[in-house]
Amino acid sequence: MEAPTVRVKKARSYTWLIPIAIYVIALSVRLIGLKFSFPLLTHHDERLVIDPLIEMSRNHTLDSGRYAKPDQFLYSVLFGYLNLLSKILFHRNFGWAYADDPLFFYFHARLVVAVFGSLIPVLAWKIGKLFKGVDFSLAAAFLTCFYPPYILHSHYITADVLSTVFSLAVILFCLLYLQKQKWVWLVLACVTVAINTMEKYPGILSYGIVLVTIGISAFFVNNENGKQKWRKFLGGILITLAIVALSMFIFAPHLFFKLDQVRAALTVEARSTHLGADNLSWLGNMLFYLQTFINASGWIVAAFAVVGLAFSILSRQPSMLLIFFGAGYWVALSKLGLHWERWSLPMMITPLILAALGLTKLWGVIKPQKLT
């Protein structure tokens, strides 16, 4: 007689719970303080989003008529969400219901930003899993979850946290492309670059992540001759730029139809004069942002970032270049005449991810070894 076969049940994997837990923790932290400054509403930039939304709702249009930031993604999301709330609870268009309870609508607009800001540690967690030989996902999630400026600016109806989310998403999609070599990931990265640019003009710098990814794929991944590598590299640039431009036109066509107003807004945003300006040089601005990171994170995290920098170089993985987006953003934005702490949020991707890498690597070196 044949022996009966015994089916062995595979142990269930609950790893999918980890990003959910990270998100819940991040959101719970960011929900604290959403009523900041109520009832005074002292944050000047918040009304620059809410006031146009009132007129947009009254006129039934997604064109704010203001292109300084340009905040196009935030306008669209808040337009839909606040009008939905208004219809359900006030039975009126948001543009007309706003005056009944401004603080209610401010709270929910801030809630939307907090919901997006809570994605930062989740994206960092996934990024930490996509490098060979090291998994620094939990450290990356922890550091980005509790980095004070990421929490603080998740309370404001401004674009800086969203730009950080989109920049991390571009890095993630590009890493997945390098790992799987499927164009869908690169297309998603390009669409996210477009959304990032629509939200804040410096978001176009995140195309640099795509550019480096194309270079790595062309020159390091595939075994092809020199001409084929250059053809793939240059062809990839043309295709991805076209996807970015097309995505921007689909999501915000008015930015193309009103180029004169966009150009004027860019000129204003790139100005070097402001009542609080201290006229720092390019290097001075770089030092300002560096000091901002050290003040917010502390010298210990900064030291871990230096260790992570060393390990990233020693790893000799070309894909490590993608996490240096924040460094490139730091150098580029420091060229502008003005500087603000909130502009530093996308820059901090690099030192925080490097700190997570350094912390994980050091722990692997110094943790007690089991006696055999």
List the helices and strands and how they pair.
Elements (H helix, E strand, L loop, with lengths): L16 H15 L15 H13 L12 H19 L3 H4 L4 H16 L1 H9 L9 H9 L2 H5 L7 H21 L2 H17 L7 H15 L4 H26 L2 H4 L1 H11 L12 H16 L1 H17 L9 H9 L15 H18 L6
Helix pairs in contact: 1-5, 1-6, 2-3, 3-5, 6-7, 6-9, 7-18, 9-10, 9-11, 10-12, 11-12, 15-16, 16-18
Describe this structure in words.
By secondary structure, this protein is an all-alpha fold. It has helices spanning 17-31, 47-59, 72-90, 94-97, 102-117, 119-127, 137-145, 148-152, 160-180, 183-199, 207-221, 226-251, 254-257, 259-269, 282-297, 299-315, 325-333, 349-366. It starts with 16 loop residues before the first helix and ends in a 6-residue tail after the last helix. The model has no long low-confidence stretch (mean pLDDT 90).
Short description:
This protein has 372 residues and is mainly alpha-helical. It contains 18 helices and no strands.
- Secondary-structure-based class equals mainly alpha
The number of helical elements comes to: 18
* Beta strands, count: 0
Listing every helix as H and every strand as E from the N terminus to the C terminus, the arrangement reads HHHHHHHHHHHHHHHHHH
Q: Termini, distance in Å? A: 44 Å
Q: Biggest sheet, in brief?
A: none
Percent helix range: 55-70%
> Quick check: average pLDDT?
90
Shape by Cα distribution: globular
The low-pLDDT segments are none
Taken as a percent bin, the fraction of beta residues is under 5%
What Rg do the Cα atoms give?
23 Å
